Amino acid sequence: MSCSMTSADPLEAKLGSKARILLPIFLLSFVAICAWKMWPSPYGVAHRFHGQTMGTTYNITIVGEAITSEQRESLQHRIDQELAGIDSVMSTYNPKAELARFNLHPPGQAFKVDPSLTSLLAVAHQISEQSAGAFDVTVTPLVDLWGFGTKGPVPYKPPAEAIEAAKHTVGYGKLTIDQSAHTLTREPGLQVELSSIAPGYAADHLSQVLLELGHQHTMVEVGGEVFARGHNERGKTWQIGVEQPERTRQALHSLVALDGMGLATSGDYRNISEIEGETFSHTIDPRTGRPVAHNLTSVTVVAQDAAHADAYATAILVLGPEHGLAWANQHDLAAMLLVRQADGSLAEHTTPPFAQLRNLKSP
Asked: Whole-model pTM?
């Protein structure tokens, strides 16, 4: 970028003597901006990639040396290739994906899948057991019943008998996972859907792939779930924004320092539906068969990876403000819960590990 100016001085002609003060200040600022553009940060250049995947979006920032257009194109291709590979295994919207085909496979018969799927489902199973079923990737029939699934919105609230019937097909214990043989077996009616853990897994996977390619300073976000390592282009620890839980606008609630960990947020303020004049959250409690109906509006969790953070945040949101906070403390999780008060204000509750992250000063 070149920086130049002409001998004409229209600013001084217009403002008179004030311009004699303002113009030098303006020129110094202009020169500073030019110098900033000409001299890259000693911490590296930020390369940003974005696109669509798994029915959502992704945003990636890589901090490092300058790259050529060919190198950038190669990186973009690799990112899209990795995401397409995950989609081909874990999607329920792609009829050719392994998980979609498993959901149609005859009950009681083992179905061989990619090892990544059995590994992720083993993680999901563990968190289901820890949360006594508050987190459950087999909740699909209930999600469909309330109009949040692939079948689309519903005009009426489902009757109690329909809810009970759907609950009989739901349950993480009805799914058999054989990690050594890489097979899955389901009971009749069981459906598996991974929207509450797969975006986090995708962020983790991409971060690891980029690290193996030599990129040590990256921030990967898929569907709102984040894994960050290293530092940003200013040499600071990545600061990840947590959204204010509002339905009508987007605003920042707080920042969390993140390095070598995953972050996920679950809330009741975005994906909602109105049925017979009532507003319902898309988060279904597998234990009751109904959308969550409490004043816990947002949960943010930081964990060893984004997949765990993703699932933990969902579990806490289902458990509610009191039980969710107690469960997070019991399992020593870094969690922040935002609870809507009667007057519309927010009360913030954090576990000690999250408070430590909030207070972490970036070097």
From this structure: 0.85
